[in-house]
Every structure is written in structure tokens, then in C-alpha cells.
Amino acid sequence: MQDPPRPATGYPYPYPYPNPQQPPPTNGYPNPATGTAYPYQNHNPYYAPPQPNPRAVIIRRLFIVFMTFLLILGLILFIFFLIVRPQLPDVYLNSLSVSNFNVSNNQVSGKWDLQVQFRNPNSKMSLHYETALCAMYYNRVSLSETRLQPFDQGKKDQTVVNATLSVSGTYVDGRLADSIGKERSVKGSIEFDLRMISYVSFRYGAFRRRRYVTVYCDDVAVGVPVSSGSGKMVGSAKRCKTY
Fold first, then answer.
1. In this structure, are residues 111 and 98 in contact, taking their beta carbons and an 8 Å threshold?
2. What DSSP element (H or E) covers 59?
3. 35 contacts 22 by C-beta, under 8 angstroms
């Protein structure tokens, strides 16, 4: 009886593969499953992830810092205005009189004397009024104007300003002259409009805010009978509108 054949020396012993369709391992490592592949970047020794652009990074950071600064500044200003609450001045027309008033041949002559009172309603801010332009109107037509000198106002302060406007023989439209004469003969008075414009600075410590302020005193009735060229404002002091 012959001995069973022995395996040849120098060859590996057969490995019992559970899956006969899978090829044997190579170099001691199992083969990948069929249909799979390793990502290129994981096995490429020369691969490097893309680096961000330094300039873009700096611009993005500066933008974030700038937006943060604007947000903080806006919040500070919002809180400041909630605490201080700057208010426009209150303006009252205490008196208005006219003398030597005459309308003839489409020419107007007259002299207006007025007294205006400015009140600062702010309890935490002082005011500075620059040169103010004061003008007298009738039906939106300027008859005369003058300028008021600058002045300051403390907190909750009041200032009385006197002014004089005059006109001599200035030309007006025929319809305007007829309107003045008709109103004067029917009502015995003439309604004038007073306008004042000035730059006003609001002061609170080192804070300064300069804004344009307009004052309207409309429909101020002045009794000027036909037989006389003089008259005074009808009624008591009149509060003007400020914008």
C-alpha cells in the first residue's frame, strides 16, 4: 500500500477560502470587495487640501469688525437719544403791530414791529441759535424780511426777541393788492404770515447736533381799518409751529 502524496516543498499550503469566487489575498492584505475603490485623496501622497485666500480672510474679518462697530455705535446713539430726547424749541408770537401801512398803485408800504418768545423745553440740553431769517408774508408772497442776531439758551430757558420789518413802495401783483384791499374793507383786519428759519445747535456736554429749524406763524390777524394805516394783532399771544 502506497503512502499518500505529500505537498511539494516551497509552496504555501492551500488556504481554505470561504468564497471560492474571491481571489486570494496578495502581500498579506485582503483584497477589496468587488466594485469598490479607495478615494484618491486618501492614498495620494501629493494631495493637499485647498488653502483659503489670505486676502479674502482679511476682508471678511474687517467686514465683521466694521459691522460690529456700527451695531455698537447705533445702540449707543439709540440709548443716548432715549435718555436725552432733544426737542425743538417752542416759539410764541407775543405781539405784532403795523404802522404806515398803505397799498396803492400795486405798491405796498408799511412797518411791522413784532416780539417773539423762544422757549427751550429741554431739561438736559442747551441751544444755540445762529442768524435767523425773519420774513413777513401775505398769501405766500414775501413783503419784507430781516435778520435776527444769534443767541444762546440754557436748559429750560426763555428768550424774548424784538424785530422790525419795513417795506417802502415795493411792487406787488394787482390781484394781491386787490385781495389786501378787499380783506381790509370787509374784515377790518389783514392776516399776515410770519416765517423764521435758522440753524439750531443742540448741546449736551461734548455732544453737538446742528439742524435746520423752520418756524411758521400763519394767519396772524392784525386790525388795520381802512381809515388808518396802523393796527395791532388781534387776540393774545399765538403759538407758532416749528419743524
1. yes
2. helix 54-84
3. no
pLDDT digits (tens, 9 = 90+) for 65-94: 999 999 998 887 777 666 777 899 999 999
CA distance 124 to 21: 94
Question: How far is residue 208's CA from residue 125's CA, in Å, rounded to a whole number?
Answer: 10
Residue 159 forms beta bridges with which residues? 118
Residues 6+ apart with CB under 8 A from 64: none
Handedness of CA 122, 158, 238, 150 (dihedral sign): negative
Q: Put residue 27 in one of left, alpha, beta given phi > 0 → left and psi -120 to 50 → alpha.
A: left
Quickly count: other Cβ atoms within 10 Å of residue 189's Cβ: 18
Q: Could you tell me the three cell numbers for 181? A: 384791499
pTM over 0.85: no
Q: What is the pLDDT of residues 141-171, one digit of tens each?
A: 999 999 999 999 999 999 999 999 999 999 9
- The CA angle 48-51-55, to the nearest 5 degrees, is 160
φ, ψ at 93 (rounded to 5°): -95, 105
Longest dimension (CA), the chain: 166
Query: Is 238:220 a contact under the CB 8 Å cutoff?
Result: yes
Reduced to 3 states (helix: H, G, I; strand: E, B; else coil), residue 146 is: strand
Q: Regarding predicted confidence, which is higher, 173 or 42?
A: 173
Q: What residues contact 157, with CB distance under 8 A and at least 6 apart?
A: 119, 120, 126
* CA 91 distance to own-chain centroid: 24
